[in-house]
Amino acid sequence: MTVLRPLLAAALAAPLLLTAACGDSSSGGSSGTNTASKLPKTLVFSPLSLAPPALKGLSEGVKAYAPSQGWEVIVQDPNFDATKQTQQLNEVISSGRAGAAWVLAVAPKSMGQILKAAQSKGVPILVNGKPDEYGFTGPQPGITFDYIDYDAGGKELGSQLGKCITEKLGGTAKVLYTSSQEGTAGKEAFDKAALDALKTAAPGATVVQTLPVTDRAKAQTDVGNVLQGNPDLAAVMSANDEGALGAIGAAGAAGKKLTCVTDFGGNDEVLQSVKDGKIYASVALQFQADMTQSFDTLVKMQADPKANGPILIVPQKTTTAGS
């Protein structure tokens, strides 16, 4: 299953508001304009579920912004059920109510019929992931793909930790890697990129343990146990906010300070910890910027829904104490 990583819950904890400028739907070729003129300005938003606060907040942001741009919004809630998601989407696309669709697919492989239905109706659709996850080899008519570059994120995370170890620990340190859980989207690529980048940036660093993390409280307990077995542990590289914050909490409880901590997530507490010097660097996916480009792209695609949609990448930003 392809998802926008569990760190969505952290990265989108604050209210998310779209700030995109509405594209001009009157442009494009004659065939595209004729098709677009028949499409309602109604956006169907189908996230994985509305249960996670992050996704609920995202849906509220869409509902708050779209009307100001002359769009209506239909929000669906498949509640992590791929069959329910395809049924809901099929109903609204087949009925002619949808003017565009934005889908965080529960199971990309189940979306084939929906993508064909949207194309046949001339309804532009944006889905998370890369074309190959949906059985395609490149850009497709009326479909925009929006994906997370896990290689780039992992490389930046490892490079930042290596930089800290070189600057503050003379290039040598014991490292704990708090990773994401098995089955998390992009995990294999992210882990490899992070560990390879760390080795390149700080060859003298040694990863003494890899600890899968999803829950902060458990992470603090588990990292505390690791610290007992490795009292000279000085660095933590974390694939999510829970691991980074849990490690800081564990170190504080043990009466010590971790010299180098890097994080992939970037929630408000993490960013404050960067300012306070507790975390060296945080690499964060910029979901608000991604929402801007996603909505803007769908609006523009209405002008010519039969043209190949673009392939978008979720922006990333690294924050350090000095930035």
UniProtKB/TrEMBL annotation:
<dbReference type="Pfam" id="PF13407">
    <property type="entry name" value="Peripla_BP_4"/>
</dbReference>
<feature type="domain" description="Periplasmic binding protein">
    <location>
        <begin position="58"/>
        <end position="300"/>
    </location>
</feature>
<keyword id="KW-0732">Signal</keyword>
<feature type="signal peptide">
    <location>
        <begin position="1"/>
        <end position="20"/>
    </location>
</feature>
<dbReference type="InterPro" id="IPR028082">
    <property type="entry name" value="Peripla_BP_I"/>
</dbReference>
<protein>
    <submittedName>
        <fullName>Sugar ABC transporter substrate-binding protein</fullName>
    </submittedName>
</protein>
<dbReference type="InterPro" id="IPR025997">
    <property type="entry name" value="SBP_2_dom"/>
</dbReference>
<comment type="similarity">
    <text>Belongs to the bacterial solute-binding protein 2 family.</text>
</comment>
